[in-house]
Design brief:
A 6-stranded mixed β-sheet has the order 2-1-3-10-4-11. Strands 7-6-8-5-9 form a 5-stranded mixed β-sheet. It has 288 residues and is α/β, with parallel strands linked by helices. The protein is built from 12 helices and 11 strands. Pfam families: SBP_bac_11.
Amino acid sequence: MKKMKMLLVLLLFATIFAFVGCDKKNPSKEANGITEVTETLTEQPSQTVTPEQSVKEDKSAEILVAAAASLQNAMEELEQLYKVTNPNVTLTFTFGSSGTLQQQIEQGAPVDVFMSAALKQMTALEEGGFILDDTKKELLENKVVLIVPKESDLGLSSFEDIVKAPIIALGDPASVPVGQYSEEIFTTLGILDKVKEKVTYGKDVTEVLTWVATGNAYAGVVYATDAKSSDNVMVVAEAPVGSTSKVIYPIAVVKDSKAQEAAKAFVQYLSSKDAIEVFEKYGFEENK
């Protein structure tokens, strides 16, 4: 029994000495004043953002695009296509009359990209110092057309015939480019005063289209692209050659944009062959 106890005591001491020896080869972290947690953090890779991460973050942006109402259908399709190759860019659109959008930008609306249905509004913003230099592009062309409800029996066949309509829908020339083009046409034809006697003015071209499509107006003047988007109207005439100025859609980056590089990239994309093909599908033409 005594031998057995002695053997256990020796075994215990041997275990203790072995532990101490190992500990001397691997000094305690706390003995050096450093905790295990501190060393773990020290040995971990740096949390500094890598160049790849930095580039990815730089590409993340939110862009507010203010565009003429007649661009809505095309822009909504282009938004989906742009997301495929630019998933970090969030596009938000506001559509309306070009004049109203112009005023909103002048009043400080946080718009990044502006696309109007006429040069007039873009020129005014340029002259006021609201457009970023060297970003404006005169991108698209449209046509002005006379429309009537699909089931119309008035027999209209030309712009001169519009005076036969009891109620005429036009865009408000104070802020809607298609309304301004309409007045140019009727002035050239010498019938503006007669037309005004029967006019109801819409806040944008979409409202004019809706009034004619629903039969609330017997005739109206819109863009060819708008007429193409509705199955409830028919085009009876295109504006006579020389009766109005060329319908140009310019686009540019707003000077106060907080995402100028992303905005420039989107404007560049809208100038690409793929984007132009989408615009053409909705009736626009590339301005050359």
